[in-house]
Amino acid sequence: MTSQGEPQEGLSTLTKVTGPSSWSRVSCPCCVSSRIEPLVLIQLAENVQPITKQWIMSMISAPVKAGGAQLLVHPGEDMKGDMIVVAAPRCTLLRVTEDLGLCKTYQDGNMMAFSFEDRHNFCNIDNMQQFLTLAERQYIVKHELDSMRAMEDQRIPGIPAPKGKLKARESILQKLEKAGVIRNITPLHDQKLLSALGKQWYSHKSLWGQPLDSIHAYFGGTIAYYFSFLDFYTLSLFPPAILGLFITFFLPSANFSNGNKTESKPTLLKQHDGQPSVSSYMVQAVFSMLWSTVFMELWKRRSAALSYHWGTFKLAEQFQEPRPGFHGELSTNPVTGRLEPLFPEWKRRVRIGLVSVPVVGVFLGLVVMGMAGFYFFERLVSGWHKASGSHFTVVLLYLPSIAHILYTNVLGNIYRNVALKLTEAENHREESSFDYHHTTKVLVFTFFNNFAVLFHIAFFKEDLPLLRKRLSSLLIVTQVVNQFTEVVVPFLVDRFLTSADRNLKKDDPEVDHLQAQGSLPAFPGLFAEYIELLVQFGYLSLFSCVYPLTAPLLLLNNLTEIRTDAYKLCKLFNKPFSAPVANMGVWQPAFEVLSFISVMSNCWLLLLSPHVKELTEEAGLSSSKVLVIAVIVEHVLIMVKMILAFMIPDEPDWVRIKREQIEYHSMQALKKQRIMLSCVDDKLPSKA
Amino acid sequence: MTSQGEPQEGLSTLTKVTGPSSWSRVSCPCCVSSRIEPLVLIQLAENVQPITKQWIMSMISAPVKAGGAQLLVHPGEDMKGDMIVVAAPRCTLLRVTEDLGLCKTYQDGNMMAFSFEDRHNFCNIDNMQQFLTLAERQYIVKHELDSMRAMEDQRIPGIPAPKGKLKARESILQKLEKAGVIRNITPLHDQKLLSALGKQWYSHKSLWGQPLDSIHAYFGGTIAYYFSFLDFYTLSLFPPAILGLFITFFLPSANFSNGNKTESKPTLLKQHDGQPSVSSYMVQAVFSMLWSTVFMELWKRRSAALSYHWGTFKLAEQFQEPRPGFHGELSTNPVTGRLEPLFPEWKRRVRIGLVSVPVVGVFLGLVVMGMAGFYFFERLVSGWHKASGSHFTVVLLYLPSIAHILYTNVLGNIYRNVALKLTEAENHREESSFDYHHTTKVLVFTFFNNFAVLFHIAFFKEDLPLLRKRLSSLLIVTQVVNQFTEVVVPFLVDRFLTSADRNLKKDDPEVDHLQAQGSLPAFPGLFAEYIELLVQFGYLSLFSCVYPLTAPLLLLNNLTEIRTDAYKLCKLFNKPFSAPVANMGVWQPAFEVLSFISVMSNCWLLLLSPHVKELTEEAGLSSSKVLVIAVIVEHVLIMVKMILAFMIPDEPDWVRIKREQIEYHSMQALKKQRIMLSCVDDKLPSKA
Q1: Mean pLDDT across chain A, nearest whole number?
Q2: pLDDT digits (tens, 9 = 90+) for B194-203
Q3: What are the helix (H) ranges across A520-622?
């Protein structure tokens, strides 16, 4: 966190060039400052008229009461005139900090929800660069820009009627983006901080440890949570990796005695077709089932500690203004007393239950149908080929695969649109809730797509050797492809791009630097990163007992993944906005659900293993009896996992105590407040 | 609630006789009143010395700071001198109301957590009889008696050393009960209110509706929740009862067409051994699965509304003093700042997970073993009997049953003790949490005991006709036995008891009336009542598809059950203390879990039905394939239930809004408080 303490010269150079006088006026005396920090860059379309730019700038600097954002604005002063640079006055920063429910260090050393009126009792209140992190300041600017609203029906100057018409309470920013006036909004990089962070992070010599606090300060909540989880996950992979290596290399044949599980005749312990012996199978399966629960529970504790540390454990999203896309009957919010659209919860739930879930189910069905069709036609075509054996049928052999890939891609594209539309129709009030439901839909589909083939092999073909082959090739090929696309390509691109950049910078550093930032591609979000981890975790927990090298390979992958992700984020994309969050959202339940599904899959794989089959045949059990026993074992294991999860509290005791303290004090405060109010009224009649 | 408004003459007659001067002095001027309402009766053992009684009375009236209860106390003045009558001064009532976190009507009409300092803004504050219900006042007295603690090591006067030694911070009341000094503590009945309530309740002519608010006011939270649930449950039984009657009487044979489910050959639809046709089977099973979810979700909404209405939705048990049996390292509670024993949460959870759960599991295993042993010996003995056929072996035939009954009873008694010991070892801080875990343990065992035989018939013997026979005899026999023990016996007992009572009363109404109250048996608690409902619900949701008359029979049972329970409670037992609660505790999840287990059981029963067997045989499916299909169907049904449960919000919108309002205001208040405090300090320097 020391990096925040230094004066932000990298950013403030712009101020020196353009001079503080070019910024819009500050109305509030406490916000007047000789140095203004540019935070966010708005890029307009090239054909935007000066009058439109003028209007946008006036709205951004207008007070909140007039529908503005109460921010500082600068015209950018480059040749094209297509930029607006935005900064934030102190009062706006502090007000929004309170609105967001961010916690900051109080004078007694505890984290407390920030209150504007009580600001003088918070630490570092005189230095905004220390009080709020760069990412928080930039998110606040974004938040305020998003909440600009038209106060009445009006027209945007310089834009023709249908596009430029604003209805009362409509979001101005959304309208401008839809109308194509605004091309892009990016938070600005601080080159000095960035290079310091990069040195600590991906150029670091040691293999271990990421500067999580600095990442949080520079990139913000969601991104910091991703890297914290990646860090924790990688560390947690050591035990299964060691076990996997041990099983693969030190137990090559079957002389491994596993106490009471394999005390039957030694002849049974012989290897079957080079696959691990049943005892190591079982050790691996049981270990990975318990490991995944312990891992997730410990991560929850870590996550709770981080959210206290980063001041995001009392976020007050439900008491804020609803997100821009939210619609409903305009009425007074009974809780906060603000005028805003209202939408009943039960309607949303009915839409989720009766529309979204069935539609998602249909798409999952289509994936299954596609796979079934693929197998059907493949068999058909290879039958023809065998029968005729001509060159024409050789070409035909590729047809089912090509058709299936096409089908999957088209389906995926349609589904992405449908998922967005469905989530919009659910009409979530909060941004986080919208993200949650949208990500869930995409995630379920992506996951299903990824695992459909493996499940098919495991549950229908019941072909363990094929599953093992498939799994190892997936792990190795994916890894090589990832390393290439994530490391080599970006590195080359970066070399070319940055060298071009550097030449330009020598001429007119500030303006061109801004332009260079705008020209990078937008950060595609964390979905791809998280789903990669989830799919890996799936390989590990669902199937690792057939291929014990999964964990070591994943460990290797993650160690490089951390660096390449960091490099990508710092160098190759525009800096993304990142909201303060209290956990990693929907990904946490996703990992947990997977860890429970893993019990079923592992039980099933054990059932399929030839050793178990032999054992049951010798014991003379019918196949349905064996199935019933497997179901019972599965339920017992799920019970054990649940007990284990119960025994590890979700938050460390010290976090719980801090949370309860706040709860207790606010309960007390609510009671006191009423009395205090009447007491002040009584004793200070001069007020009236 | 109107009954509270009337002056409580039934109770205050005692005051007239004994005169206010016989009560202990009131220290606080606002609590002085010409009329004192006796609330609780403490019965001492007969051999207690006057000096001990004197000491107890002085402790009860001592201030809280001295370890006392700050209550009013009256020596009782009967011949034997073994009674203490306790009343509560206004200040104590109000202080504890705040401590408990009870909500009362604020001047703006909303329910708000009561605050002593702000008392003048609450409605009815001048009349304790209207402000607090009788049950609440009596519970407050109990609560204060329970929290009497020795301030230092001391001896109870008049009791020999080992029993009479009090350690610092030891609960005085617990010690006195253990030492046998206190025989009994009962809240006093108010005959006038009671007879008015009885008239409304069980002597009521109409079949429907209970005076729930009056029950809550007179008997208190836990009891009111039981009757509310019974009420709601009975009402909810109408749809399945109607369906059951319809299936039984209007679909005697199999010509019932069920759309797409039975479009196969009509020959398949013929009746099998007089059991209902498969289509009605399926209708019944699917209906009861969905019905149970809808029922539980709607009850949750009703429960939330009741808890708001009764002011128990913000109970602050975790911020109160711990329950008397709680032990731990004496330290400052970091949340409230009070000195009290502390015990880490993770230790409790480890004890639950590693000790309690396995031990309970062992006992459940013993139940199963007992049953297996019974069947084994029965087969053995009947084999002998067939072989020899002598009179001696006829007697032997009864041996397995007798042994099994003995075994079950002994096991049950051991288990009850073990469950109590285990829960004590878990060392719960709150009374409600202790009850929750204790009840869970007993409940699981009792339920298992009740259903073991039925499960055995359904899942191992796979004998549906036997299951149907057993179920119908259980339902009918239990009902007849219940009606007899719960209605006829109590009625006869009551006739004899009350007539004896009435003669006595004419002589010296007050004192003998008190004595009569003490002589009734203690109320055995609601466990037996709830478990009866749960077992019934189990019959209905788990097995009703084999015996559609279950629901009508249960409906009939419940309609009488309401009246007999009410009669019992009013007439045949001492009035119980009943804590203010926000829901029906562990019973709610118990019913929910059962409703999910019902999916498995219904799927299994459908699988066993001869019709499905024929169908699968015709389709040529192997038995393990059929099992897999059944498992898939089961999972889909569980999904549907979960979606249904998700779609019905757990609390009505208006309750959610009220709750969020309080949350929002206390968040605001916490911020304001700090400023208010400094503001008052600044503006009122004269204070110093």
Answers
A1: 79
A2: 888 888 787 6
A3: 527-538, 550-567, 587-608, 610-619
Q: What is the pTM of this model?
A: 0.82
Helix (H) / strand (E) element for B83: namely strand B83-87
Taking CB atoms and an 8 Å cutoff, what residues of chain A touch B357?
643
- Helix axis angle for A221-236 and A527-538, nearest 10°, is 20
Using the Cβ of A121 and the Cβ atoms of chain B, whether some distance falls under 8 Å is answered with yes
Residue A667 in tokens: 């309960």
A346 contacts chain B (CB < 8 A): yes
Which are the contacts of B626, defined by CB distance < 8 A and separation ≥ 6?
B607, B616
What are the residue ranges spanned by the domains of chain A? 37-188
Lowest mean pLDDT among B115-119, B295-299, B495-499: B495-499
pLDDT single digits (tens) A216-262: 989 988 999 999 999 999 999 999 999 888 888 876 544 333 333 33
The Cα–Cα gap between A355 and A426 comes to 9
Residue B667 Cα, gap to closest chain A Cα (Å): 6
CB B572 within 8 A of CB B564: no
**Which run of H or of E encompasses B600?**
helix B587-608
Q: Which of A611, A628, A282, A609 is nearest to A462 (CA)?
A: A609
Number of H helices, E strands in chain A: 26, 10
B657 touches chain A (CB under 8 A): yes
Please name which of B198, B167, B314 lies closest in space to residue B665, comparing C-alpha atoms.
B314
Which residue pairs from B75-82 have beta carbons closer than 8 angstroms and sit at least 24 positions apart in sequence?
B75/B22, B76/B511, B76/B514, B77/B18, B77/B22, B77/B511, B78/B511, B78/B514, B78/B515, B80/B46, B81/B50, B81/B53, B82/B43, B82/B44, B82/B45, B82/B46, B82/B48, B82/B183
Q: Position B6: which residue type?
A: E
Residues of A in contact with B660 (CB under 8 A): 318, 335
CA angle B537, B538, B539 (to 5 degrees): 90
* Buried b or exposed e, range A583-598, using 16+ CB within 10 angstroms: bbbbbbebbbebbbeb
Contact A649 B349 (CB under 8 A): yes
> A658 to chain B: nearest residue by CA?
B335
Closest by Cα among B530, B536, B534 to B474: B536
Retrieve residue B416's tokens: 């009850």
Provide the token pair at B261: 């489910």
Q: Which of the residues A106, A335, A362, A437 would you substitute to probe the B interface, choosing the one with the greatest number of B C-beta atoms within 10 Å?
A: A335
User: Distance between CA atoms of A588 and A222, rounded to whole angstroms?
Assistant: 13
A and B: number of Cβ contacts within 8 A = 146
Q: Is B381 exposed, middle or buried (0-12, 13-18, 19+ CB in 10 A)?
A: middle
Q: How many residues are given for chain A?
A: 688
CA–CA dist A146, A323 (Å, integer): 8
Return the structure tokens found at A454: 């493996």
Q: Looking at the complex, report in whole angstroms how far the Cα of residue B595 sits from the nearest Cα belonging to chain A.
A: 17
Interface of B with A in 431-470 (CB under 8 A): none
Say how many residues make up chain B: 688
Distance CA B526, CA A26 (A): 68
| A506 CB burial (10 A radius; 0-12, 13-18, 19+) | exposed
Partners of residue B655 in chain A, C-beta under 8 Å: none
Query: What's at B130, amino acid-wise?
Result: Q
Secondary structure (3-state) at B398: helix
